[in-house]
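Reopening this one. Same input as before:
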Amino acid sequence: MLELDRGFYRIIGSKHVPAFLTYEITVKKRNYSGVSPVFATARGTIQGLLRSTNGYKWAHAIRYGVSGVEDGNTEVEVRFRIIDSDSSGGSQRIIVRGVGYEHFRDDSENSTQGLSES
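Same output, byte for byte:
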């Protein structure tokens, strides 16, 4: 769950125009000694124009496989990093509001079945 809570824009001259931000989410196993601890990596780009008093929230669903060495004690860590952005203004920010699943009140919205092609 991600949020832009203080607007999203870039300034050209005296005008606010749409901005973009590209981010990457990586899901890794902790304390893993195999070939690659990475379960999944996904990138997303958000683009638009929000005033300083406006915000926007969204969820980024990621499908990842199981390698066969996981058990009930397997822990994963999720890393978020900004790849590129052209936004301006010191007060803008992106917030990671939650990681995991079953965050929605309506249980039917918690399913990611069919949202991803791969």
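So the earlier flakiness isn't reproducible anymore. For the record, The chain has a mean pLDDT of 82.
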